[in-house]
Write a structure and sequence with these properties.
Strand order of the largest sheet: 6-7-1-2-3-4-5-10
Order of helices and strands: HHHHEEEEEHEEHHHHHHEEHE
Oligomer: single chain
Helix content: 40-55%
Shape: elongated
Strand content: 15-25%
Number of strands: 10
Length: 328
């Protein structure tokens, strides 16, 4: 009888051990499955990463190196040349189109990103980036022209006033010089639409589909060149200098996003497949991807860490000492 009891006790213990072992094994498998699921969920979604990087990029926010724009205008002898130089400087998605108003002693050029891609400059849905005024304070060919360049939107801290030099470093006088430019602009009728408003001559950039696509193609080709990398580095230095000069004011200014651009963001984020499109973009010709994938193009913040976008540097700007306005 005792042998039988001993056998039963042993059998019971063995069964209990097996049940316990199976329970622990099952529990372990559940933990592994949950862990795998957790890490799978924790893995960044490439589309979400691309969307976040795009949204934080300087060009996406309409930020432009206006020191380079100023230099480009000083070195350009016609509006076409200036237009292309501006689009080589800018890092955003769309072309920057120009609207030009010409009076007797005053020329105004506004640069706007063509957010709605309707191929017409500075309509109500576009985002103004800068306003350039070239003027004479008095009548007479002996009075030199003055240049005033003012940033708009996220570029609002920039303002410069200077005598306007000819590209060959000779003084410029508005009536003779700019009306010659006006004739050259009118010859490019395929690029511009002429209007007279209250007696003022206004040129709006307006192009057909073929010309519009050819301009985008030309810019994409430029952006795959070493010259564009050099320009991004210059843009980065300009951004860092603005942060150093203005401190918290810079951080505030770059969040000064226009209503048009806010709508542009909202449309992009809700557009089906846009995240996938961003994730598939070629980093060799896309400014925001170049900035994120190349260590040499990342912004250096106040604490010495490298960051991929100008928004990171704007956070760093909060630790910088504020300075006076950026007046040339």
């Amino acid at each position: 009888m005792s042998d039988s009891n001993t056998l039963l006790n042993g059998l019971f213990k063995a069964v209990s051990f097996c049940i316990k072992a199976l329970g622990q094994l099952f529990f372990g498998i559940v933990i592994i499955i949950i862990g795998l699921g957790f890490f799978e969920d924790d893995k960044p979604d490439p589309e979400e990463v691309a969307m976040a990087q795009w949204l934080e990029a300087p060009g996406t926010m309409g930020f432009i190196n206006l020191e380079s724009v100023q230099e480009a205008f000083n070195q350009s002898d016609d509006l076409e040349t200036f237009y292309w130089k501006v689009n080589e400087i800018f890092e955003g998605d769309q072309l920057v189109l120009l609207s030009t108003q010409i009076q007797e002693r005053h020329v105004t050029i506004q640069g706007c990103e063509d957010l709605n891609r309707n191929q017409v400059s500075c309509d109500p849905q576009d985002d103004p980036l800068f306003l350039l005024n070239l003027f004479q304070t008095e009548q007479g060919s002996e009075v030199p022209a003055l240049l005033q360049l003012t940033g708009m939107g996220t570029n609002s801290l920039f303002k410069v006033n200077q005598p306007y030099p000819h590209p060959d470093n000779q003084p410029i006088y508005l009536p003779e010089h700019y009306f010659l430019r006006r004739e050259s602009m009118a010859e490019a009728a395929m690029n511009y639409r002429e209007e007279y408003v209250d007696g003022d001559f206004i040129l709006f950039m307006a192009m057909d589909d073929d010309l519009f696509e050819s301009h985008h193609y030309k810019r994409r080709k430029y952006r795959s060149s070493a010259n564009f990398i050099t320009q991004i580095r210059r843009n980065n230095m300009y951004e860092q200098d603005m942060a150093n000069r203005h401190g918290t004011r810079f951080g505030n200014s770059i969040n000064n996003v226009s209503r048009q651009r806010t709508k542009y963001f909202s449309t992009a984020k809700t557009r089906p497949g846009y995240g996938a499109k961003l994730a598939a973009m070629d980093s060799r010709s896309t400014a925001w991807r170049l900035r994120n994938e190349s260590p040499s193009l990342k912004t250096t913040s106040a604490n010495g860490k490298t960051r991929s976008s100008r928004f990171a540097s704007s956070k760093a700007a909060r630790s910088y000492r504020s300075s006076s306005g950026f007046i040339g």
